[in-house]
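Here is one such protein, fold included:

. . .
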Amino acid sequence: MTGGIVDAHHHVWDLAVRDQAWISGPALAPLRRTFTLDDLAPYARAAGVRATVLVQTVTVPDETPELLALADRRHPLPAAVVGWTDLTAPGVTDALAALRALPGGRRLAGVRHQVQDEPDPAWLLRPDVLRGLAAVADAGLVYDLVVRPHQLAAATRAAALLPGLTFVLDHLGKPPVATGGIAHWARRVRALAALPNTVCKLSGLVTEAAPGHWTAADLIPYADTVLDAFGPDRLMFGSDWPVCLVAAGYGEVVATARTLTNGLTDAERHAVFAGTATRVYGL
C-alpha cells in the first residue's frame, strides 16, 4: 500500500492498572495479560501499518484519559482515540469538552459504548442515549457502534434520527460466521448501510469464525456483503488486536483482509486500508 495502512481498530490494556473483567474462560486465556503499544509496534511495522486508531475496552471514566495520554506521547502508531463517556449523563457535553482539554485530547476522534452488553435491544433509542449521541455530533466526533445482529435495527433507527452524526459499525455487527448464518444479519446490515451517515469496519471476523477451523473462504460472504452495501469509500480495515490473537496473529489478520479485498481496484483498496479511516477519524 502506497503510504501505508491505517489500522482503524485496536486496543491496549495493562492488567496492573485495571482488570479486564470480560477476559474470562479458557477461550480468552491468551488475552489475560498486559498488551502495550510497544508490543504491537513490530507487528504493525512488519505489516506496513503507518497509523492506528486506539479504541476503548471498558466503560469506566479513567480509561479514556489514559488512552489520550498514550496517544500524546509521540508514539509512532496511535493517530486517534475512540474513547468512552456516559452518554446518559446530563453533563455529557461538558464531559466531552473536558476530555478534549486533556493532554492528548486533540486525538479524541470518537466515542463508543459496549452496546453489545446492554440487555435492552433498543438501548440506542432511549431518549437519554439519543441526547448523548446528539452531544457527540455537536462535539464533531463520530460514534462507534459495537452491537450484535439483533441490535442493528435500533442502530439503524438511531442513525436515521441523527443524520449529522457518523456511525461507525465495528466488526460488521458481529455476524454469526461460526454457524454460517447470513440472511438475517445481511438484511439488517444493508438497512444500516442504506443511510449515508454510516461506515463499517472490516474487522473482528476471525474471532466470529469457528475457533481453529476457519479459512478466508468462510469470511468471504460477509466481507462481500459489506463491500457491496457500504462500498470501499465507507469501509475501513481494523485488526482488533490483541483480541484477534485468539484466532490469528496480526500478520495473518492483515493478509486475510487483503485476500477479502482481492477483487478491488488499487484505489478501492487504498480506501479500505487507509483512505476511509483517514477521512472519518480526521487523521
